[in-house]
Design brief:
3 domains, 417 residues, mainly alpha, Receptor-associated Protein, 5% strand
């Protein structure tokens, strides 16, 4: 569909510039008038680079005048999924986009999201495209979200695209929630256990072992080790606290650098337990997102450029980038990914099968279903194993403490007898 660059006046007489898709200059003028804009100049744009430059310039201008709207709490994925689902329902029911946004505004209780939604509606009224308005808020709407909306606007299938976006967001949110819920109990147990052991070693053990040291008796090796460990915790607990606080801060700083993030992500993939799980999560995200983008008319190379930023691992992202170069040279996607040996074999085989059968989008959806199910099963299995292991470790530690305290008592009883 042709793209037109326009200059128009709004109802307040303010001059506005932008771009829009339309079948002809006449229909472009009609579109502008329907949004209460009065066209002054309309020119068809043939150069794709120029269209991108205009779009980016408009975004920069809007960002300059709207710094305060970027400040606020982060929008939850669950809120975004609900908004997308409601918007898809209203558009499917025949509401114009502006009317649908007007209907949703009073129902949006989160102030930050409400402000963004109001501004997006105003920009659409002024002649901006829906995708262009969304791109002003990259911290709320991802590149995937914006590009799928743009594809839906271009193809006239915005309702279908919004429903698919809601499905993707809800599935990712559900998977993340299941993983968090499965790990909540082991993490809580580990925290409580660590606090109890710290209190034992810092306060309880010294008061008991002090009796043995006052008796000037030769103590068994386990008891001496326990006393030394207790003295260390009692004297240098602040060092341990500083280390525990410093580790996540240092890791966060390292991860902000390109080389540091690559090293950490490599280590994660090489760790026996987390490595396989990370690969499966990345394969599920990659397949679900790529399938949705391709199904909505986004080109393969553009889709790969978007998908590489959502897999959550720098090494896997680099693998996708390398695969995109090979795809650009005419090689198949499945074969390009297989050479890296990062993606699971089943995923690359299914992708190659989808390419051969011409059902790549459907096959990518099946790959996502398979690995989302495997991730959930793996997490549940790991947490089921973690609980008895943690109980066993805690039992061994407490047993060692009890044995170290009881051994001198047994020796004293033998001397008395």
């Amino acid at each position: 569909m042709p793209v037109f660059e326009y200059t128009a006046l709004n109802v307040k007489g303010k001059q506005i510039s932008g771009i829009l898709d339309s079948e002809s200059a006449v229909t472009a003028r009609q579109k502008l008038r329907s949004t209460r804009l009065f066209p002054v100049k309309i020119t068809e744009v043939h150069d794709t680079d120029k269209i991108t430059a205009i779009h980016n310039t408009d975004n920069k201008k809007n960002r300059r005048f709207l710094p305060s709207l970027h400040i606020g709490r982060r929008i939850k994925q669950s809120e975004l999924a609900m908004l997308t689902r409601q918007l898809a329902t209203l558009v499917g029911a025949g509401f114009q986009l502006v009317s649908a946004l007007d209907t949703l505004l009073p129902q949006t209780k989160t102030p930050a999201l409400n402000k963004r939604l109001a501004k997006i509606k105003d920009m659409i009224v002024e002649g901006q495209s829906f995708a262009g308005a969304l791109s002003l808020y990259p911290e709320t709407f991802s590149a995937l979200y914006i590009n799928m909306v743009r594809a839906g606007e271009t193809s006239g299938t915005l309702e279908i695209v919004l429903n698919q976006l809601a499905d993707i967001t809800e599935k990712q949110q559900a998977l993340n929630s299941r993983i968090r819920n499965a790990l909540a109990y082991p993490v809580l147990m580990a925290f409580i256990g660590s606090v109890v052991l710290f209190l034992l070693l810092t306060f309880i053990v010294p008061s008991i072992t002090g009796i043995f040291t006052d008796m000037n008796q030769t103590l068994p090796a386990p008891t001496l080790f326990l006393i030394s460990l207790s003295d260390f915790f009692k004297s240098f607990w602040w060092i341990i606290l500083i280390i525990l606080i410093a580790i996540p801060i240092v890791l966060s700083r390292i991860k902000k650098t390109k080389k540091g993030r690559l090293l950490i992500d490599k280590a994660v993939l090489r760790t026996p337990l987390t490595g396989h799980l990370t690969k499966k999560i990345a394969a599920a995200r990659f397949s679900r997102t790529l399938g949705s983008l391709l199904a909505n008319g986004v080109s393969m190379l553009t889709a790969l450029e978007i998908v590489k930023n959502i897999v959550g691992n720098a090494l896997i992202s680099n693998t996708i980038e390398e695969a995109a170069v090979k795809v650009g040279k005419g090689q198949g996607l499945g074969a390009s990914l297989e050479t890296s040996q990062i993606f699971p074999n089943l995923s690359t085989q299914m992708i190659m099968l989808g390419e051969q059968s011409g059902e790549l989008e459907t096959m990518l959806s099946k790959v996502a279903d398979v690995y989302e199910s495997e991730v959930e099963s793996a997490v549940l299995g790991m947490t089921a194993l973690l609980e008895p292991v943690m109980i066993l470790v805690m039992g061994v530690i407490v047993g060692f403490i009890v044995l170290s305290i009881c051994l001198p008592i047994f020796e004293m009883n033998q001397l008395v007898m």
